[in-house]
Fold dITP/XTP pyrophosphatase.
Amino acid sequence: MKLLVATRNKKKLGELARLLEGAGVEGVELLSIDDVDEYPERPEDGRTFEANALIKANDGADATGLPCLADDSGLSVDELNGMPGVLSARWSGGHGDDEANNTLLLGQLRDIPENRRGASFVSSVVLVVPGAGEVGDGVAPDSGDGDLVLSFHGEWRGRVLTEPRGDGGFGYDPLFVPREEDSRVKAGRDLDVAGDEPRTAAELPPEEKDAISHRGRALRQLVPELARLVKTMR
């Protein structure tokens, strides 16, 4: 089964590939936007992560006729009343300028003490399968008649540092320390392997990040549905 993943981000594609392999799901060929003919992409102007993911999944499914998976993710900072939120990728004005986004966020939080720097990474994942069923619960009916629409949500709690650390990941990963890392160091676990300082999301090995990240949590809910879909489309 060919599955279009509505992204040009190879790291997101690799994350899903690792999860499918780990779950033993075979028969899924992952395609990115760069692997199909160019098609019109509407602005991501939804007010929620789920709405933006649905826009992208619908565009891909409508243009190619393939099942299309899309996610919209971002950082929600407590002190900023949940912002950058759906504006995370373009917080500094342009789209996808990670360094500028991180610099702006650090400036906005410059005088905020450590105990008020709580934040969550949030991810909504939407799968649209043309002609395969009805719109699922919890998703706005913005798809073609008879399409199957499934939605999944993941959240990753942590805090924002005062300066970036780590070369892995992307986006705000170098600024985000997961709650799991603070708990690990406080409990004295794996200090000889993982170190005695809480790691940022950009310092975690990919497999560890997959296991606890917001997108990983949402995608793991998706995997059983993909496995069932593969069986029905053989």
The longest helix spans residues 214-232. Helices lie at 10-22, 49-64, 98-108, 179-187, 191-194, 206-212, 214-232. Residues 135-143 have pLDDT under 50 and may be disordered. The chain has seven helices and six strands.
